[in-house]
Amino acid sequence: MSDEQLLIDGVPETSSRTKEAPRMIARINAMVLKIVFPFMAQEDIRYYLNGVNIRPLDDGAVMIVATDGHRYVVVHDQHGYAEDEIIVSVKKDALKSCNTKSTFDVMSNGSALVNDETGQEQFIQPGNSLIEGKFPRIENIASAIGYREGISGAINPAYLADALKIGQHFSSIRFFTRDQDSPLTFVVGGLGDLEVFGGIMKMRESFEQLPRWFPLPSPFELTEA
What we know:
Layout: H1 3-6, E1 24-29, H2 31-36, E2 52-56, E3 62-67, E4 71-77, E5 81-82, E6 86-88, E7 103-107, E8 112-115, E9 121-125, E10 148-149, H3 157-168, E11 172-177, E12 184-191, E13 194-200, H4 220-223
Antiparallel strand pairs: 1-5, 1-7, 2-3, 2-6, 3-4, 4-13, 7-8, 8-9, 10-11, 11-12, 12-13
């Protein structure tokens, strides 16, 4: 008897014929989404920047990276998991359900959801959240060589404000700089097992002389009463 003859109308196929059930391919602390979201690109033609990069590390943890090409942020989640490196889109509505006790889970079929500490679904992201592409290697940009504490150079104030917003979730934030052209680096700490640092590219502006509209010095005798 052929396999086709064994099938009966209205009776579900056996498990051997059904598609493989989706499995979890990544899990991170959902608080990470609140940290990295401001640094994600929005509707960029470089579509792979419109998501976050979740990457497994040799120590068994994961590294999450977001960048829009002008700044970047990196999070080390010691308790995170990633089967392979992936890029995942994140909807702003998901942030409402994110906290340090919830998780952001990504499934093999592209679904992504936020679960609370008991495993109950708090938010299910619509559509396929996986983004195909090759995410830039942030290690080619980030560096600590020659940096000293402080801020120098021309910085986009909106980008600086976003870095300070990240600091609000932590107990401290420190800034480091090397020269007028190298990225301004920041390091935050004090939120459980999450380690975070980032960088902001400098703007090419200088202040080597006073503006032309500023009056020239007057002779001393003309300044006397």
